[in-house]
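Homework help board

Subject: predicted structure for assignment chain

Our instructor gave us this sequence and asked us to write out the predicted structure in token form, then describe one feature. I got the tokens but I'm not sure how to describe them. Can anyone check?
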Amino acid sequence: MPRFRKRYSAYALSLIGLAVCLIGFLSLQTWPWGLGLLIFAALAALGTHDVLQRARTLNRNYPILAHIRYGLEYIGPEIRQYFIQSDLEERPFSREQRTLVYQRAKSVVDSQPFGSLMQTKEPGYQWMNHSVKPTQILDSDFRVVVGGQRAKPYSASVFNISAMSFGSLSANAISALNKGAKRGGFYHDTGEGAISPYHLHGGDLVWEIGSGYFGCRDAEGNFDPEKFRANAIRDEVKMIEIKLSQGAKPGHGGVLPGAKVNAEIAATRGVPEGQTVISPASHSAFDTPREMIAFIEQLRELSGGKPVGIKMALGHPWEWFAMVKAMLATGEHPDFIVVDGGEGGTGAAPVEFINHIGIPLFDAQVLVHNTLVGAGLRDKIRLAASGRIISAFGMARSLALGADWCNSARGFMFSLGCIQAKSCHTDRCPSGVATQDKWRGSRLDVPLKSERVHRYHANTLRALTEMLESAGLEHPDELGPEHIIHRIATNKVNSLARLYTFLEPNELLKGGAAQHTVFREYWAEASPDTFAPPPELLKRRQNRIATA
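My token output:
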């Protein structure tokens, strides 16, 4: 006879309890016995199902008890977030960082007593040196003129809302962001999901055009110039941004299941209701760097002379160099470039893409800035940085490395009330921000949250102003890599100016940059006519294949 296993004890007790409660209820017919009967009947049914099913071995070996394990696993992230993680542990934003945004969004005290919680002697710690002659800045509304040589230039704030689409965020979240942008005088990037009615509350828009051409596509998903023109000439649209890739999943397309394509999203994106929509991994409107420049010119003309730029998470350096060579060859260029860090972002993506695909923001930003300086184009093209920037110091660091302004997605999500539940892809966002569940989204109060969006922007710029004053500076454009100090080891520090190699103006035009490995390897062979790898690299690949 098989020996009874303790792991079946919960199932056995449920059967015994069911029998006892059944006898008691039949004998006395009182409600406590009836309630017990229902409870033990449910447990016994669950245990019986566990024993008979074949999909989960754990359930068969531990009937009923396995569900306790699954329940604890389900709430594990919340337990770690609220009770285990330290204030500085980043997953991906620390409690201290999130609290800072919440405080600034509510305009409550964001001071901290008793000193820094950071390990200042640990490698990786960064700081900004101050001056014995602080300045006094009267206005925190720092501006950057984009497309100054175009018919309709735009004066952008140095801090703006990064790309997040309607469909990824709820209607109320988009409305609150746009109304907050209007109050604060900064821009709201639409994301590639097109311009929805919720974007049209008066806030300045940067219309992002992705590979799906939502809002400007024909029935086959190709770019439609007339549909583009109709949206691009809107007064709310201040600039056009062509998304080549994004930090969350660079080089990866997207699929919007037909079940999520309701009438509202279908009308916004210009796609059939109820049908699955595919965003290709690359654009169909151009195949070469020269064709990309021609596409930029086409969008600029169709929009009536508004600034047109590109957004990209940097990947193969030769592809970026090919774009720059196309700018030099044609004499045309984008008005701005948004560099998105490869660390991931608001978009749900495969773990490998979030963790290991794409160049991290600061390295990508330096490479783009260096290339434009070395090619003599930096004064013609504005540069923006996007990727985990939520504080004034985060802004100062990117501005010091060459950015003209910064964008933030998750920072503004926190200002809306996001709690970093990391359920953006499940449609069950508890704060009503990243969901299309109408009941959940409707709980987000638009007037209140739009004011918090505005306050977060204003208070972050005020904090940046105070940092600039402390450093003895007058404007963010005075920040340089020499202002940010990085600890390399316990007893060794250096400024970013010495940690990175910076090119001189026109250095690439004068024969390259031999001291910089990436330029030495790929600049000379990059071609404005193709995104393909350089011949020498292809040769090395072929040699490896031949000897395999």
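Reply (TA_rk): Your tokens look well-formed. For the description, you could write something like this. The mean pLDDT is 89. That's the kind of observation they're looking for.
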